[in-house]
Amino acid sequence: MTTTKVLTFAFAMFALIGLVGISPASAHEDDAGCTPGYWKANAKKNGGDRWPDFVSTGTITPSTLLTDEVDNGLPGGPHKIVNTNGLDITNMTYLQALQLQGGPGLEGKEQIFLRAAAAAILNAYYPDPDLAYPIAAKDIIPYVNAVLATDDPATIVAAANILDEYNNLGCPLSNN
Asked: What residues contact residue 150 under an 8 Å CB cut-off, 6+ apart?
């Protein structure tokens, strides 16, 4: 293994130990999260009018690429998704990620995870305090990258399950 791969793997494991250690059971009573279905429906019915808008630095829209930098002025930003070995996300938008179906093998597991991750990113970056997501915005994209860097289908599915639990905590936003 090259030094770069060893360091990337070490970082991924460090990040996973720090963040995957948070279980759905540790979510607070006031925490909330909207599902991939909510964000898809909002994009289709309302043009993504509920998608995160950062007053000073821009917006995540349905056509924002997963690999675009997302910056809302939080420490450690901007962030972008950079690691995936099974699935080509070079030109994948957030809306396309929300529409992924999953399937067999590493690529299928990455699809399941990226669908949950896209919703998690939208939840975490949503600026309204009524949508209190259990993972901080500054941590969510590094977490996604750390999970993808493992290339381990079991780790990816476990992380997708955690994000799915968080995304299903109840959505306080309206799609009207």
From this structure: 9, 12, 13, 16, 156
Q: What letter represents residue 135's amino acid?
A: I
Q: What is the pLDDT of residue 73?
A: 62
Mean pLDDT of successive 10-residue stretches along the chain, which has 176 residues: 42 47 58 95 88 67 86 64 78 94 92 96 86 88 91 95 96 85
The rounded distance, in Å, linking the Cα atoms of 35 and 170 is 8
Task: Classify 38 as helix, strand or coil.
Answer: helix
Distance CA 73, CA 110 (A): 28
Pick the closest to residue 76 from 122, 120, 4, 138 (CA basis). Answer: 138
- 65 phi, psi to nearest 5 deg: -75, 145
How is 134-158 classified by DSSP, letter by letter? SS-HHHHHHHHHHHHHT--HHHHHH
Which pTM does this prediction carry?
Answer: 0.82
Give the sign of the dihedral formed by CA 94, CA 105, CA 136, CA 81: negative
pLDDT confidence of residue 30: 82
Q: Which amino acid is at 136?
A: A
Which are the contacts of 25, defined by CB distance < 8 A and separation ≥ 6?
none
